[in-house]
Amino acid sequence: MVKSIGTAGSAETTGETCPWSASAAAAGRTSRPRIALLSNPKSSGNLAKLPRIREYCADHPDVFHYEVEHAYQIGEAMKVIGRVRPTVLAINGGDGTVQAVLTEIYNGGHFVGDPPPVAVLPSGKTNLIALDLGARGDPIEALERLIELARTDLKPFTIQRELIALRHGRGDGEDLPIIGMFLGGAALADAMLYCREKIYPLGLPNSVAHVLAAFLSFMKLLLGLRASFLPPDTAPLSLSMLDERESLNGRFSLLMVTTLERVLLSMDLGDRRAGALKLLAVEHRPDSALGAFVASVAGKLGRSPMRGVHFEQADEILIESESSHVLLDGETFRAEVGRPIRLCTAQPLSFVKLAA
Fold first, then answer.
1. Closest by alpha carbon to 116, among 84, 69, 75?
2. Considering the entire predicted model, what is its pTM?
């Protein structure tokens, strides 16, 4: 069931009636909420925090709170939020929830004119997008900050951020794109899936699980180990930068395509060319992987040439392979023969940056 928690209590959304209007009228209010908060109760970071968030939203008329239990319900949620016309759309969930909302904003046409700026609360197992936008710590504190900003001029606190549009398959323009901000592929995607399927079930803290998956992947590469309990072997693939007429081929221990400013291990990929996808590919060799790791820790990755480390910027990237996984903000896709993965830039969207 989809739940809409209005500013003065809870109600199910029915028909075409704006779901906050009844509760607002009962409380003597006619103004629309400044914040529309979309929550994913099944996001791991919400399991303990959501009751506090529900209580907070019930006590604050500036917040309209809508919960979805499944991804397919996000379309209906965005249709309702479009009628609410909030000043800010806040997302309470992990990167996968953010990706689903961005995709619906891009494809759904639920807002009259430009959609509201998007804010991301620090929730979920992975929070790369939230961290990039300055959201850290307690989501209630982030929500309080958003209410404070929404009561003033938001413009100084918003930024335009390019997005990744992923199409998988025909590439004839008929398939709707999936919209995101961070794609991981090659051995990085294998390690992410390994962490999700093998390590998360152990019940370890997220940070410990991520470090353990990265350590096992690196030790496998460094020592050439093979065992059933280790991450799987990475498959060869081809990366084509279509606008640059360049291509990279082989096995890669790290493949990232992003529009984020700062990503894993605080790598600063910079903003060398506005509107471009930033690609980082590290060849699947111990010396290249170790050199990239040391350079990233020192904050120098991408600033000077390194053997086996490729930093590119392109408007369109094609990923081809016989069988290789990529993850776009947590959602898995597989590049296969005859079904390449095509990435291009999407129209920028405004985001609220909670910290400098």
1. 84
2. 0.81
Q: Pairing between strand 178-180 and 35-39?
A: unpaired
**Across 186-307, where does the E strand assignment appear?**
237-241, 246-250, 252-258, 277-283
Token look-up 């040391």 returns 294
Domains and CATH numbers, the chain: 3-162 (3.40.50.10330), 182-328 (2.60.200.40)
**Spatial contact of 99 and 179, defined as CB atoms under 8 Å apart:** yes
d(CA 198, CA 200): 6
Instruction: Give which of 169, 149, 168 is closest to 157, Cα–Cα.
Output: 149
Who contacts 171 (Cβ-Cβ below 8 Å, separation ≥6)? 340, 342
- The Cα–Cα gap between 179 and 181 comes to 7
Phi, psi of 12 (to 5 degrees): -80, 145
pLDDT, one tens digit per residue, over 299-317 is: 777 777 889 999 888 889 9
20 and 6 Cβ atoms separated by less than 8 Å: yes
| CA 175 vs CA 70, 163, 167, 212, 334: distances in Å | 22, 17, 7, 37, 16
Torsion of CA 355, 97, 210, 221, to 10 degrees: -110
Q: For 9-51, write each residue's pLDDT tens digit.
A: 333 333 333 344 334 433 434 466 789 999 988 776 666 778 8
Portion of the chain with pLDDT greater than 70, in percent:
81
CA 8 to CA 64: how far, in whole Å?
A: 9
**Which pLDDT score, from 0 to 100, does residue 263 have?**
62
